[in-house]
């Protein structure tokens, strides 16, 4: 769909980071609720799979956090060409 070309005002790495954080929190809360509130086997299995999904999303947001931290450190440089490249990466255009 190439939304990064259509909506250039968004910082896509940060949006991906926020998506991972919210998904991990939602899956974690639902998994705890499924295990604590219901006692049948299907709810326990759903809780275990939910915890697995939480771990996957947490790993993803950790990796994205490292990329965003590198991105933000690179944006602190003083010269304008680096700032332009950083802006292009934020918009999803890659290296210019």
Can you put this structure into words, describing what you see?
The protein has a domain at 46-70. It is mainly α and 96 residues long. The chain is built from four helices and no strands. The mean pLDDT is 78.
Give me some keywords for this one.
96 residues; mainly alpha; 4 helices
In short:
The protein is an all-alpha fold.
Which oligomeric state applies? Answer: single chain
**SS content category:** mainly alpha
Number of strands: 0
Contiguous uncertain segments of 5+ residues: none
Domain MARVEL: 1-69
Membrane topology: Multi-pass membrane protein
Transmembrane segments: 20-39, 45-65
InterPro entries: Marvel (IPR008253), MARVEL-CKLF_proteins (IPR050578)
List the helices and strands and how they pair.
Elements: H1 3-6, H2 12-37, H3 41-75, H4 80-90
């Amino acid at each position: 769909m190439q939304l990064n070309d259509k909506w250039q005002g968004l910082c896509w790495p940060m949006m991906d980071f926020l998506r991972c954080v919210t998904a991990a929190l939602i899956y974690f809360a639902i998994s705890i609720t499924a295990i604590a509130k219901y006692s049948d086997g299907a709810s326990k299995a759903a809780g275990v799979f939910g915890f697995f999904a939480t771990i996957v999303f947490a790993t993803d947001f950790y990796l994205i956090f490292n990329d965003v931290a590198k991105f933000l450190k690179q944006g602190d440089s003083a010269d304008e060409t680096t700032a332009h490249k950083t802006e292009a990466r934020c918009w999803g255009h890659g290296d210019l």
